[in-house]
Amino acid sequence: MVRLLRRKSRRKKAEELKDLRVEYLPDNEAIISTLAKWHNGMWPHGSVEYRKMHLRSQVGSRGIPTTFVAISGETLLGSASLVPQDLKVRQELSPWMATVFVGLKYRKQGAGSAMVKRVVKEAARLKTEALYLFTPDKEKFYLSLGWSLIERINYRNEEQSIMKINPKS
Fold it and tell me: Is 159 helix (H, G, I), strand (E, B) or coil?
C-alpha cells in the first residue's frame, strides 16, 4: 500500500514539471529575493543583500557570468550559474558552473539536470574548451551527466571533488 502511494506521488510530481523551462535570470525582484535567500541558506558566507546585488548584476547577461533559473509554470525551482572563478585555490581553471541549487520540495524531479545541461550548452555557445565545478557530495549526480572527476581536495575543511566537462557546440 505504501509503495503504491509513493508511485502515485512521483507521477503527480512528474506531471507538475512537464512545463519545466530553464531561462536566463529575469529582472524580477521576487525571483532575485528568493534565490538570494536560498543561496545564503545553502552557502552562508556573505549576506542576503550582497547576494541580491550580485544576482541583479547578472540580469540580462549573455556571457560569463550569467545565471539561469528553472521554472515550472509560475514556480521558481532553482538556479545555476556560469562564472569565471569559483575556487580560490584553483585560479588557473576557468570558467566554472556554480550555485547549482534546487528548492527542497522540487528535488529529484529533473530541474537540477536541466539546469546543468543548460549551463553546459551556454559554455559551448561561448566556445569554452572546458567547464569546471566543485562539489562535496554530488559527484555521482555529475558523473551521470557526463562530467569527469579530475581531483579531490580539502577546501574549507571539507573534501571536495573538482570535476570537468568539455562542452561541445
Answer: strand
- Annotated domain spans of the chain: 19-128
Which grid cell sits at 60? 540580462
- Please, what sign has the CA dihedral across residues 48, 51, 56, 60? negative
| Fold topology of 19-128 | Aminopeptidase (3.40.630)
Closest-CA residue to 59 (of 14, 99, 22, 29): 29
Residue by residue, what is the 3-state secondary structure of 40-108? HHHCCCCCHHHHHHHHHCCCCCCCCCEEEEEEECCEEEEEEEEECCCCHHHCCCCCEEEEEEECHHHCC
* C-alpha cell read off for 43: 552557502
pLDDT in tens, the chain (169 residues): 333 333 334 444 444 577 899 999 998 999 999 999 999 988 887 899 999 998 999 898 899 999 999 999 999 999 999 999 999 899 999 999 999 999 999 999 999 999 999 999 999 999 999 999 999 999 999 999 999 999 999 998 899 999 999 998 5
